[in-house]
């Protein structure tokens, strides 16, 4: 069996399941936010802050951020492996883009728990 240190999962099947599961979590989160926007007639800063102050919303948002990171990590690896042939360039691009994705997740944690 061939393994690659650049993937998040251990095998292709594991990566496949992670990508699909993270997509489901992100889809549910989008539907949750759309539902909130539809049922909230007057969206103000106070309602938005109160919404994200709820512990359940914070946990769901954090789960979605982690799912987004896993989804992006695997997706970037697959796209860069397919389309960027020089190994050095591919490694640098993968490193930089994954650091950016990780920074987004960390900033999301900080912003979310600051509410």
TrEMBL record:
User: Any idea which positions bind heme?
Assistant: 71
> Pathway, according to UniProt?
Carbohydrate metabolism; tricarboxylic acid cycle
Chain ranges passing through the membrane: 17-39, 59-80, 92-113
Question: Among its keywords, does the record have rRNA-binding?
Answer: no
Q: Does the keyword Cytoplasm apply?
A: no
| UniProt record, GO biological process | cytochrome complex assembly; tricarboxylic acid cycle
How does the protein's chain sit in the membrane according to the entry?
A: Multi-pass membrane protein
GO: which molecular function terms? electron transfer activity; heme binding; metal ion binding
Its subcellular locations are: Cell inner membrane
Q: Which cofactor does it need?
A: heme
The record's free-text note on cofactor binding: The heme is bound between the two transmembrane subunits.
- Report keywords, A-Z: Cell inner membrane, Cell membrane, Electron transport, Heme, Iron, Membrane, Metal-binding, Transmembrane, Transmembrane helix, Transport, Tricarboxylic acid cycle
Q: Which GO terms describe its cellular component?
A: plasma membrane
Q: For binding a ubiquinone, which residues are annotated in this chain's numbering?
A: 83
Major subcellular site = membrane
NCBIfam families referenced in this protein's UniProt entry, alphabetically:
succ_dehyd_anc
Q: What PANTHER family does the record point to?
A: SUCCINATE DEHYDROGENASE HYDROPHOBIC MEMBRANE ANCHOR SUBUNIT (PTHR38689)
Q: What does this gene product do?
A: Membrane-anchoring subunit of succinate dehydrogenase (SDH).
Q: What is this protein called?
A: Succinate dehydrogenase hydrophobic membrane anchor subunit
């Amino acid at each position: 069996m061939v393994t690659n240190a650049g993937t998040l999962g251990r095998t292709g099947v594991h990566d496949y399941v992670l990508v699909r599961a993270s997509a489901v979590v992100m889809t549910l989160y989008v539907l949750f936010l759309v539902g909130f926007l539809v049922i909230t007639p007057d969206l103000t800063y106070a309602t938005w802050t109160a919404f994200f102050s709820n512990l359940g919303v914070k946990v769901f948002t954090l789960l979605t951020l982690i799912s987004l990171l896993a989804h992006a990590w695997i997706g970037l690896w697959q796209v860069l492996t397919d389309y960027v042939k020089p190994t050095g360039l591919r490694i640098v691009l993968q490193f930089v883009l994954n650091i950016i994705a990780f920074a987004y997740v960390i900033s999301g944690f900080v912003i979310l728990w600051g509410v």
